[in-house]
Records
---
Amino acid sequence: MEVYTKKSDDNDAQYLLTYINNVLIPSSNEFFILLDDNKVLLHHAFSFNAILAHAIDYMVFIANKMSKVKRKDFIFNFDKQYSVDGCVHINNKFRLLDAVNNSFKHVELNSKRYSDLIETYGDLTFHSLSAKDGKIFFESPSHAFDYCRVVMRPITAIFKCDLKTTNDVDDFINGRVYGCTGYGYFDYDYEPHDAIDRMTDACGSECMDCGEGFDDCDCPNFIYDGKKAEFAENLDPNFDFEDVMSKISGTREFSK
Ligand SMILES: [Zn+2]
């Protein structure tokens, strides 16, 4: 859904660009070092979550100046607009991020504004996130998962698309350009020369739900909507083990 088509105010766009490039991206770099080392504490997660949520607020501000749109509706469309990839079980990542930020800021969440999320996850409070062994978990009666890996990492990837101009900002707010984690995209020629690459990618593929490799994926311990999760391999649907193996041995024969 495009919210507006005209060019927004250069000063507003510049503010958002400065914010993304000087605040959001540098803090994400620090945050993901902690994440990779499993050293995330609760205040790291809430701080970075607030930084991401503020970017949403500023996009709503710019969009509202261009075309009257309700904040709730705008954020509702974010998840579709940016095609946030990653965990398919949490398909309302932007809304959840916004609700977690508001439950952090306010003692009581506006239950009307977040009624659909409360219906899905139960009550959202400051205690919905908790720290354990350097990871931050979102927990409710029906859900339990690594919030930083499942929600914050795919959302952060959206902002990493080299925005530089007012036009870039307008394209970004309207979902015409955005970054992604790249799951489900496989750029192969399907020729013998890329068989080793295809095998390497298939053996080291990441979990699309948490972004980790098989050895570090915790998903079998997560619960989505009351059901146990599992390693969701980012595997090329055209990957055929026998075929790739025969091409690899063919390449070897050829190079002898
Ligand atoms: Zn996983």
Note: The pocket of zinc ion is lined by residues 207, 209-210, 212, 217, 219, 231 (CB under 6 Å).
---
Amino acid sequence: MTTLYCACCGRPFKRTSNRGPAPLYCSRDCRLQIAARRRAWGPVDWGLPAATAQALMAVRQPADRLAKSA
Ligand SMILES: [Zn+2]
């Protein structure tokens, strides 16, 4: 059996079946949580923690304004 790491909470988990693509999440809860985040964030890199993604967006917005006025 292969040990995988959850793309949501980062916990290691065992892959239970070798058929199909490798699962990204340790549980259905984590998969649903990511789906909800993707809906809320749109095209933002949802692999980052929410606080990090929001900080990146906060930095990016003033930079865009500067670029336009320059
Ligand atoms: Zn998880």
Note: The chain has one domain: 3-69.
---
Amino acid sequence: MILQPVKRRPLSRYLKDFKHMATHCAHCRKILDRVTLTRAGVLVNKAGIARLDTQIDEAGWLAEKPLWAALCRFCGDLYSKEQDNFFDIIGFKTYLLEQTEMSHGTIREYVVRLRRLGNHLREHYRPPQDAPEGFCLATLSEWLPKTSSNNYLIALRKYDQFQQREQRCRL
Ligand SMILES: [Zn+2]
């Protein structure tokens, strides 16, 4: 028997196929329109993918594949930008997706509000001396922006529910 040489292709080629085969966002399950790829939770843009020219074989790809995810643009954005938000945006979004019956549009609305609020708080919030550790609805609600504060408060309350659930799960 003649041994066939192992077929190798650049990683970027595998990723191209991977991208084309993905139909739903790996995070929110929405049907994909524009695809964003992440590797181990970090966004890799088109140019970055094109540079991945390491030649690998099928076995190499099988080892690499679990690290990659195809996400919708919205989820991709969250992964690339929100890791250091004041709030746990990704956890919050997962909670809304999995534990509530909200539509994608409504979830998006909540997430966008909380992101904005997180940015605002990161700039302006100075915790009082006797503030309890971590998230506290009562303390934070005094620091809301002056405009649309009611909308932010609604998002904050929802986040509070998420935090309480997290704590219950950890006990
Ligand atoms: Zn998504």
Note: The pocket of zinc ion is lined by residues 25, 27-28, 30, 71-72, 74-75 (CB under 6 Å).
